[in-house]
Write the structure tokens for this entry.
Amino acid sequence: MFVASVIVDIPTQALDAPYSYAVPDDMAVSVGCAVLVTLGGRKAVGYVAGLEEASAAPGEGTDLWGTPLAVSELRQVEAVLAGPFFDEEGAACARYIAERYVAPLSSCVRLFTPPGAVPRVVRGRDGRWRLEEPKIGEVDDRWVTRGPSFGEFAPRKNAVKQQQVLAAVGAGDVRVAELAREFGSVSSTLKTLGERGAVVVERRRRMRGVEIGGAAFSGEASGADDASVSTPSVAALSRAAVRPQLTEGQVAALAAIEEARAAACGRVVLVDGVTGSGKTEVYLRAIEAVLAEGRCAIVLVPEISLTPQTVGRFRSRFGDAVAVMHSRMSDGERFDQWDFIKSGAARVVVGARSALFTPLANVGLIVVDEEHEGSYKQDSAPRYQARDVARWMMARSGGAVVLGSATPSIEALYAVAKDPAWTSVALPERANGRPLPPVEVVDMAAEFASGARSMFSGRLTRALAAELSAGHKAVLLLNQRGFAKFLLCRDCGFVPECPHCATSLTYHEEGCKLVCHHCGYTVAAPPVCPECGSPYLKKFGAGTQRVESDLRALLDGMPGVGPEVPVIRMDADTTTAKGAHQELLERFGAAQAAVLLGTQMIAKGLDFDDVTLVGVINADTQLHLPDYRASERTFQLIEQVAGRAGRAELPGRVMVQTYEADSVAIQAAARYDRGMFLRAELPKRKLLAYPPYVAMANILVWGADEHEVATEAELLRAQLADLIRDTVGDPRWTVLPAVPCTLSKLRNTYRYHVVVKAPLGADISAPLAHLFRTRQTHPHVNAAVDVDPMDL
Ligand code: ADP
Ligand code: ZN
Ligand code: ZN
């Protein structure tokens, strides 16, 4: 008899442990299966995380997870519902994430499960438990194809439908659904034709087309029958695309990656290459080598740069062996990709951070492109950092990790300097030999002092006129933080705020509305001040719409430019629709002269040859935020966006408008001088005890009643401080006072936090896990841990 250790999927804020269930002898269960169990009087779905022969521990002892076994008393697994979704390694990974990030185990095993693929347990009105079938599964299509006597069978003259169907099938295999759409009901026709052997109707597996932005690809393109899902040979794959002669830097990077792979212990190679230096080409070659050894590879890219352009480069090299995973896909599409990977036909998975958790077997390399990106950290449980989980995985499976960036995170640079398992290779030049564009800093304070009031400085205006009239393109970046437009009463200073969030409402020209950008709360803009009745309500700040209309006016009046030059605005409002992002980029690409005006989302991944001017409208708003990474982010943003200019023959230039022209982050970015930036930034981090000099975690506390939240946060702080004093006893650990979060109220929920710092190398998760496992949870205040937080 086997005993299964089962992670029961019941929503919990406490940290959960697996429970043991006996497996009936006639039941086929394996690790990773979703099963039906009973826990605390209710039925629930659980995931099998381990299996042990019960005789090894007859009625006593503990299982792998430390759970006491008493086999005779154990409840039984009631049914196998679906899966397996992960193997022993996946179970170990889930356990690692749960421990490292102090997260419920159930949230960690869910990472491995395609959404919608497991039945849900629901309780009916009559109090009985029911299983609700999974929403997602395989989709079959019925296809009509030629039968053995296709050529011989001649329909009668008046059998019109038979003639139509035969004509259609004669032109190629066709779906029953398609025939029905065209000719009406065809079932009796197909039956007759089938009986005569003229056609054959068969079921074929369908892949829901995966949309990445606008372009769709689907499994059908390569034939929909199972037989076509075979592994293309590596040689065939490599022949498929042009492989440029590698630069010296690329050769060195590949050598470092080969060495790290040979060490087979999860070593990390940082490819520190400017934009356009050929990092992607390095990834492609490294992956070729991995595939040639019969192993597989994962490529993580930031959600926003997961465009057809990016995916296309991998597909043109590795063809149908590339699977794609990202959060904008529907559940059905994700399931199909998951299933495709599970079949063994996929050899490379390209995707956002969730691409780590597919059933891709025998992974020998994980590439994390743009490793400095914040989107590699998940902001809900489990709050894992994909970069670090990748490292753990490769250490386990004897592979290597490649991190790539033009602006590596300070953490990565620090690790390269201090950790022998890390190396870095610099690619300081663009692959095509083009220089990086010069960056000019435009001092907006000086402009203002000299009487200028436009958000476009004289220099930026002249540069726009020159480039656009020459038929070139420009990219203008709006730092969205600080760009919201709000109302202010000039008499009493009143600013309308969201009643549910601690933030001012944003004014929208369209419809004259005030909108909360956190919760969506919307009201009509008041005609007079609701506080003092004054009619002098002034609009402050400039929304992206306002910048767009000002820019439009500016261009319209420009000699040699005028109204024909389109302004394409790309921000949260214009990219909500699926594929909108891609469509805007395509429009920009196809236009003659044009301006792409957008928020942070335009800073990366754009690759247009004819962009000769990049302007940053407001570089400094991030410097004021109470965020220890603000300077680092500003530096990275400017370097990233600068890389969009002058990528091909046409030389580029960059203008950075700022009210803080002296700030080191901006000056250093303008000189592409990372050393200058780090020399200023690192001593500050060290002095104030921030990463990379300490390990940090954040306890988040939230609830509807501010007093309760504050009290609970203080209680947690005190308990944790005591626990650390008693168990760790190292005075270098600090627990800061409980304080409101920067966004102190969100959707009527009050938010507090407690910051914990520990010396580097200390296991900061351990005391937090202990606290969260043992503490009494509050009935209506929530708490969670964020280890290595991105924001405070
Ligand atoms: P990155 O990922 O660092 O931004 P890419 O790999 O996208 O750089 O390369 C930038 C451009 O240079 C691409 O158009 C790519 O095809 C080209 N490229 C890359 N490596 C080489 C090379 N060795 N020789 C010539 N062109 C190259
Ligand atoms: Zn007022
Ligand atoms: Zn709100």
